[in-house]
Fold these 2 entries.
Entry 1:
Amino acid sequence: MTVGDEVVKMEGHLAVRMVRNDAAAFERLLVEVARTVQRREVSAETILVDVFNINRTLKFIDAVWQASGIELDVNSFYLWPTLRDLAGAMADGSYRNVPKRIRIRQGTAPETLVVFAGGASCFLEMKDFVNALAFDGTVYGMALTPFGRPAATPAVIADEVAACLAELDASGFAPPYRFVGYSFGGLVALELSRALAARGVGVDFLALVDSPQSEHAWPLRIWLSFAAGRLLSRGGQAPATGPEEPSSEPSKMQRGSRLARYRRTLRRLAFRFLSPKTESYPTFVPQWQGGYPPAYDLAARQLLRMKGLFRPSRYEGPLVFYRTEGGSPVDCDPKLIWESYLPAAEWVDVSGNHQTITIGRHARALAADVSRRLAAMKKA
């Protein structure tokens, strides 16, 4: 609630009373929230990208929003590296000024590499990969544009590509470009490369990392095979039938559980035929969890509609497609749906699964291969 120029918020044990431009009060709040989320000592001068991962960042952002009414951007830590810096940005309102192109690692050479994250463009999920790159140039992240359009007329990937082109034009980067796109970010990197090729502008290096397509775009044969496998898996197995049990309270509970499983299965199968322009569409997507702060909720809904409306087309340019050995429980083998559209792709199987490919040893292995290719191109 607001009292004069003061903001008062209650969330759990947090009670904050602060003047809107009081940087010291914001700093105290941020330090308390950070310590709670990290479960360890965090100071106002701690370099945030060094200690936060994506999951704890999202928890931190949610807790700050609940306590202050201010929702920070998922990439704020790259712009305001410490809690003290971030508190100052909250006090003067500059926390809202998040650019589309964000420098996530400074280099010493003039070359640049642009990365496109999955999800709602939180580049912390690619932190381990970026840190492990043996690349002398500067690494930038290209964030998704919040178009803010209604469900009936949503933004599509072509809109995002146009925004990326404008940003590249304004950046002063000299082509040819180098792109790495993880998950949904790979779709943007691919279509941006296509648009640049149409302009006659070169893309020296394009890598897609386990990038999916929405199941709306899968050939029916592939979708049916995947759906059948999911139905028979432990998580989606149809309840077994057997002799009628005597009426009892436990059997009623079992029947209720079976009915709930049937409903979940039918809901999951129905998703294939649901229009991304339906208001409730994002809540049917398997990855949807809900309970997000407002801006993140809008970004997630926009991204899911973009993915749902995307339809692939043939791309003749060279690229590397990194396919994880562990895959994803909600997506089919990407080679089944991409190979015919990417005739010049080099397919490289890498360790890990869709969630772990950008973390720890899997990220380092991926970075080593990307670094080797970038170095070879520089020598050529």
Entry 2:
Amino acid sequence: MNKVVLGIERLEESIIRNASIGLVCNHASYNSEFCHLIEVVRKYGGDIRVVFSPEHGLYGVSYAGEKVSSYYDKDFNVDVYSLYGESKAPPTDLLRSLDFLIYDLQDVGVRWYTYISTLYYSVSSSSKAGIPLIVLDRPNPINGVIIEGPILEERFRSFVGIAPIPVRYGLTVGELAKYYSSVLGLGGDVRVIQLEGWKRSLWYDDTGLDWIPPSPNIPTWETAIVYTGTCLLEGTNLSEGRGTTVPFFILGAPWINAKRLSRELNKLKLLGVFFRLVYFRPYYSKYSGEVCGGVYIHILDREKFRPFTTIVYALKKIKEIYPRDFSWKKHNGNYIIDILSGTDKVRMIVEGDTDIGKVIEEWNRHLREYRSKTSRILLYG
């Protein structure tokens, strides 16, 4: 296996030396020799004026959805400006004092993962400030071939759904920055330091790279696969496994009979997956301290497995079996499931108001249109 060379490892010293720089990075912004981006830039003689941190903070210790404050970091001796606090966009007046902004965050290839919303605002703000945005590219861990799920509808736009792209969008962050800039019209001077040796068909374990968990509940790269579907459970009263050692691989609730659910879900004969009965007790989050019955998702064939579609079918079945126990969660009067999925069609399918086959056919038509749009910004074969 030939090791993929990261964008951070192809950053040239001549670009950095004596430049005034802002960084968008976190605890996973390391090269393959475990040298952090802050250390790399300083070694090359760059003047780091500010570090912008995403959700979970510079060190990845804040919980999902928890506001993060700006502060002075004594370990790295740098001002840290939070992009998950009072503001989610780098301020243009601050950016105008820089020569350029560098973005280096490991993504998971899923629309509701907020690092790509931070990327969106990095593209937008650098464009408004008139400075280049340099994106140090990283692999899409769940490959760049398979795309899945609905395109975000504008009325459901939020920080967990920032742009009209599919749930599983099949691009690297460098390509996505180009998509934001040229296809969605954010403009700006986006420069991608490309990966070397990466192909669209590669999964993360094909890259030869070590995985650094980019956020607390994505401990393994494989978690990103199931997360593409099971994150939808955040919009329900089902546990998605937060507060266990295998977040997003398990789902359940105290009122579920694990054996029955496992049997009913396996009867669906969904491709590439097996549902094993499981009981678990979360130590925080939903049903903390309570024993939950449910299933563990075993990926049998990752090329055939479609996590988003799988969970839509699973939710529909759970609603059928437990109509009085199952419920949706809301935030500010809106169904969280609609915000996450970028449409109300998932909820309508589960409620039995819409035919799942027709909806998936519609989604697939939109995916073909999206793939056509991405063809002009692809950087890798």
